[in-house]
Amino acid sequence: MKRIYVVIVTLFISNVNVSQVGIGTTNPSHAAMLEVSAISGTDYKGLMPPRVATQTERDAINATSIDSGLLVFVENTGTFEIWNGIFWETIYTLSTQAQTLAFQDFDTNLSWNYTVTPAFYNTAGDIWDTVASLGSGTSAIDLVSGYFLGCRDLNNPNGGGNIFHEIAFVNVAVSGVVNARIAFDYDVFEFDNGDDVRYELFYDDVGQGQVVLINGAGDYSEEGTLILNIPGSVTNVRLTLGIIQNGDADFAGFDNFRVYGQ
Ligand SMILES: [Ca+2]
Ligand SMILES: [Ca+2]
Ligand SMILES: [Ca+2]
Ligand SMILES: [Ca+2]
Hints:
The strands form five sheets. Strands 9, 11, 12, 13, 16, 20 and 22 form a seven-stranded antiparallel β-sheet that branches. The protein has helices at residues 2-19, 55-59, and strands at 21-23, 34-36, 39-40, 43-44, 51-52, 71-74, 79-83, 88-93, 99-104, 114-117, 121-123, 126-131, 148-152, 165-169, 172-173, 181-191, 196-203, 206-207, 211-215, 220-229, 236-244, 251-261. α2 links the parallel β5 and β6. It contains two helices and 22 strands. With 262 residues, the chain is mainly beta.
């Protein structure tokens, strides 16, 4: 009798798992057709609803009477909206919206100007440049998108050397916002001992000290988004980022440098 019970339960669970979908989990809630896990390896992630830039884009969805319950987030109004079969109703309006003060993604957002030392070069696989790819075998650099600041074999005779390669962003006025932030994405692959990434913030042109972001050792890889809080007393803020790296199969990409606040 006990054995039969176990078989029946096993069959039931199998059936549940086939008809339900789990993303990031093999054990979705029995009450859910779809469960999205917040855990991705050692990271935590959220659920992103479909986003449109404006209500004009929202209206282009062309929802009808059979689409009640459809959800969308409208970015420029900060509204999370649901379709009631006739028109869109606002479920919630954000009380605070971030505003971008400067942005450099090396693609379409180019408002945060910068200088580089040494000058950009891209010769025979030695790369210190804005690129869409660092070449074959570099698919690990995947956190970046489109063009990005690429580094490969920086210790070279083609414009580089055993020196920190630095990108220095210009000052951005943050006095018009509160809760100012600087953020950028980094993706570093197999940095060895001596391969390092460091950055420094400048508050009203006063350096706040160099901070080691990546201390390479034993083919160390890391990717992520660094978010830095700027004190409310600061009027102008800027950022420098330095990378030192030599041969071997190691390389790095940086993207989406931005200053924002509310
Ligand atoms: Ca980019
Ligand atoms: Ca990566
Ligand atoms: Ca390496
Ligand atoms: Ca190296």
